[in-house]
Amino acid sequence: MLTIHTIPELRAQLAEWRRAGQRIAFVPTMGNLHRGHLELARRGRQMADRVVSSVFVNPLQFGPNEDFGRYPRTLEQDKAALAEVGADLLFAPTAQEVYPRGMEGLAKVSVSSASNILCGHFRPGHFDGVATVVSILFNLVQPDAALFGEKDYQQLFIIRRMVADLHMPIDIIGIATEREPDGLALSSRNQYLTEEQRQLAPEMYATLREVADKLRAGRRDFPALCYTGVKRLEASHFRPQYLEVRAPDLSEPKRDSKEFVILAAAYLGKTRLIDNVSLSI
Ligand SMILES: Nc1ncnc2c1ncn2[C@@H]1O[C@H](COP(=O)(O)OP(=O)(O)OP(=O)(O)O)[C@@H](O)[C@H]1O
Ligand SMILES: CC(C)(CO)[C@@H](O)C(=O)[O-]
Ligand code: BAL
């Protein structure tokens, strides 16, 4: 597997593969790779001739009091893991390479319809930072397909909308959330948890599933369902930011809807966890 840090080298390598008519799948990440990320790369392997992944902890998507400084950076381990699942190229640029003129006054991409609700309400500017860096990466890699995890449901939704609105010729593939045996969604941030918090963490998925079961049983009193979910999380020492039932397009659900997604974000100590459960009735 090639590891490339600069844009000219990346473009030269990709041009060669494209000239040979090869199909490229792309897996953007912030590194510290776990089984969830590697599943995205494996699925990319099945659908393309070349798999390109990126590791870039994007400063533009972190708020001033968030964990940009302490986000785990484990490039050597990430290289080995990607090579093992058959990735062809790892692009690991510096912030200077991605934002050579700095982040002030930068041209940005904003999917305004979905960026200020749910996680976006609590992380102002976050999704503009994500949409901007993903469009920069898409412009550099020009993949045929790009793979994203359903764990970051709102992010996946925003990227699909961005690609549609901007007519980017890229298939966006969503991949189901990889979980620990006790249900906790894999996340690089799980390693911030103390042992005691780690024991409590699966309550988030259990709570979302309980709400899903109630919807399946016919309950449609959405505010009461969410309130009970929030209380269950609080009883497990979470500090919930939100727990909401939405339609798959993140609009308010209707009583006669057949599809729902239940999403939550909550702090456990200093660690912010997110998860979601989709259901069709
Ligand atoms: N458990 C998972 N299962 C499947 N895909 C995942 C999982 N966790 C993350 N991904 C996907 O991997 C890609 C890169 O995500 P990212 O590097 O932010 O990983 P992360 O572990 O979710 O980190 P964070 O703690 O920052 O949320 C995203 O498309 C994300 O949705
Ligand atoms: C898509 C992404 C790599 C953009 O920085 C990031 O938000 C992530 O890892 O989910
Ligand atoms: N997985 C989303 C990246 C972030 O939380 O910044």
Automatic annotation (TrEMBL):
UniProt keyword annotations, A-Z: ATP-binding, Cytoplasm, Ligase, Nucleotide-binding, Pantothenate biosynthesis
Any single Gene Ontology cellular-component annotation: cytosol
Binding-site positions, beta-alanine: Q61
EC number: 6.3.2.1
Associated pathway: Cofactor biosynthesis; (R)-pantothenate biosynthesis; (R)-pantothenate from (R)-pantoate and beta-alanine: step 1/1
Organism superkingdom: Bacteria
Pfam families the record matches: Pantoate_ligase
Active-site residues (renumbered): H37
GO molecular function, one term: pantoate-beta-alanine ligase activity
Compartment annotation: Cytoplasm
Amino acids binding ATP: 30-37, 149-152, 186-189
Catalytic activity, reaction form: (R)-pantoate + beta-alanine + ATP = (R)-pantothenate + AMP + diphosphate + H(+)
Miscellaneous comment text of the record: The reaction proceeds by a bi uni uni bi ping pong mechanism.
Assembly and interaction partners: Homodimer.
Protein name: Pantothenate synthetase
Species this chain originates from: Stenotrophobium rhamnosiphilum
